[in-house]
Amino acid sequence: MKKSVVIIGGGIAGLTTAFKLKNSGMEVTLLEAASHTGGVMSSISSDGYLVETGPNTILETSPKVTELVSDLGLDSEKIYANEISKTRYIVRNNKPVPLPLSPVAFLGTSLFSLRAKLRLLKEPFIDPWDNQYEESLSQFVIRRLGQEFLDYAINPFVAGVYAGDPDHLSVRHGFPKLYALEQKYGSLIKGQIKGAKERKERAEESKQKARMFSFRKGLKTLPASLEEALGPAVRKNTVVTDISPKGNKWEITYQTDGRPEEILNSDCVIYAGTVYQLSSLTVERQRLKDFEYFRQIYHPPITVLVLGFKREDVRHPLDGFGMLIPKVEGYHILGALFSSTLFPNRAPEGHVSLTVFIGGARQPEYADKPEKELVEIALGELKILLGVSGKPAFVKRVYWPKSIPQYDVGYGRFKDKLNELTKRYPGLYFAGNYINGISVADTIVQSCSVADEIIEGAKGAETEKEE
Ligand SMILES: Cc1cc2nc3c(=O)[nH]c(=O)nc-3n(C[C@H](O)[C@H](O)[C@H](O)COP(=O)(O)OP(=O)(O)OC[C@H]3O[C@@H](n4cnc5c(N)ncnc54)[C@H](O)[C@@H]3O)c2cc1C
Questions:
Q1: Which end of the chain has fewer beta carbons closer than 10 Å to its terminal beta carbon, N or C?
Q2: 328 occurs within a structural domain
Q3: Treating both helix axes as pointing N-terminal to C-terminal, what angle do 440-466 and 63-71 enclose, rounded to 10 degrees?
Q4: Which alpha helices (H) appear in 231-351, and where do they start and end?
Q5: 439 CB under 6 A from ligand 1?
Q6: Residue 400 CB less than 6 A away from ligand 1
């Protein structure tokens, strides 16, 4: 029997599940509220610059990611980040210092004091956490690696990846691999060594080693190709307002372009929308307290400011991935990606482009300041840190009032609630960046497993019938 599935939301999560299910022979319909698919993933070409409005890179941490790109026939469009981007700068004493990548470089770096380096040697001898209570990332890092490591490695990294604050993020839910290293091996250093061997066996890459990629025409290529492959199964400008279980089927109510509501019936429904929008969806026309519960998940606001400069107006060689700024350094920008170093065709000839992030959980009040003010702040700070002079040749600002779900301490209660809901409502599934990691790669992997679960379920039902 051909199973029908309605997917709510056309970000990378919804598109991936829809693509996988369609390829397995299921009848899929994807309903997306916006006029474009991709969700936060979108690229804009303007004045010779290629701007990523949301994610800039995808880390190839799982074969599922590689497979998806290949299945779409995008291997020739895929570009890996410039080798030089292995260098990442962290600001210390108002100067960008390369993050050491080897034990020898670590010994010689000025990023950490001698005391911090000696403190690290203690790490393998510290007992693992006994889980008396759930630790924040800060508590975990101070306990195992020391305050300076938190300030000059973890704090800037977390601001860059999560737009987050390590004092609130849960090590267990936000950084499960780090948490598991300690629980399994008793030490991060010992775990790194042993874990590398195990990952090799599973053909997985660690986040540090995985290669970063984009596409010639920007990350938008991925959702655009998925949309093309799905063809008429994708309906844009379509908001789902209600889902109602009817026997062993689902009735999905939606509105396209503000027209009167329409109804679709399906065997399964996947919610792949943003988790903060879940509360506006009703079940059997009733607001559900369990959906409203997810409004507690904090999504800090962030501004992405893409600035273009003439090459000679930036003194720094921009020979790396970018620069991250620890909170203790007291700046207003969280950091800057060296976008035109990362990939070709991001800026016109003779120009460079920097992608600056402002706001996040560190300074949410800065994210929605007027563009003029933000550009002034960024220029002032980039002048000190990268030797930027003169006016920018290009400015594009993108504001995300609710950027990335924060897996804060206590996040397990949301995962429990999702499990409870899927048990209570057979045929309802969840996919997205609020389940097993916020990165594009983690979202793809989670979405593939949702699709696999539905496919396996359908096969199981088929076999039972035959018997
Ligand atoms: C500024 C920024 C930078 C980032 N940088 C990176 C990076 O460099 N690398 C990386 O790996 N990750 C990065 N991320 C994270 C990553 O991009 C996201 O976590 C991921 O793309 C989210 O995908 P998603 O499909 O879960 O959600 P979304 O992309 O948010 O898509 C959800 C979709 O559902 C739709 N929707 C919601 N409700 C309904 C409804 N009722 N009916 C119909 N449609 C609905 C929405 O319109 C939206 O299109 C970044 C995120 C942001 C915001």
A1: C
A2: no
A3: 80
A4: 289-292, 339-342
A5: yes
A6: yes
Q: Helix (H, G, I), strand (E, B), or coil: what is residue 416? A: helix
Whether residue 232 is found in the same domain as residue 268: yes
Q: Please tell me the predicted confidence (pLDDT) of residue 198.
A: 76
Is there an atom of ligand 1 within 6 Å of 234 CB?
no
> What distance in angstroms lies between residue 84's CA and the mean position of ligand 1's atoms?
28
Pocket flag, ligand 1, residue 11 (CB < 6 Å): yes
Residue 316, helix vs strand vs coil: coil
Q: Confirm whether 390 is domain-assigned.
A: no
Distance 300 CA to ligand 1 centre (A): 14
Q: What is the CA radius of gyration of the chain?
A: 23
Answer whether residue 197 shows pLDDT above 80: no
Q: CATH code at 240?
A: 3.50.50.60
| The token pair that represents 285 in the structure block | 């026309």
334-387 residue pLDDT tens? 999 999 999 999 999 999 999 999 999 999 999 999 999 999 999 999 999 999
Residue 290 pLDDT more than 90? Answer: yes
Instruction: Please count the other Cβ atoms lying within 10 Å of the Cβ belonging to residue 48.
Output: 15
| pLDDT above 90 as % of the chain | 89
Report DSSP letters for 146-172, one per residue: -HHHIIIIIHHHHHHHHS--TTTBBHH
Q: How many domains in the chain?
A: 2
The string over 216-245, giving b where at least 16 C-beta atoms fall within 10 Å of a residue's C-beta and e elsewhere, is eebbbbbbbbbbebbeebbebebbbebbbb
- Residue 440's domain comprises 4-41+221-297+408-466
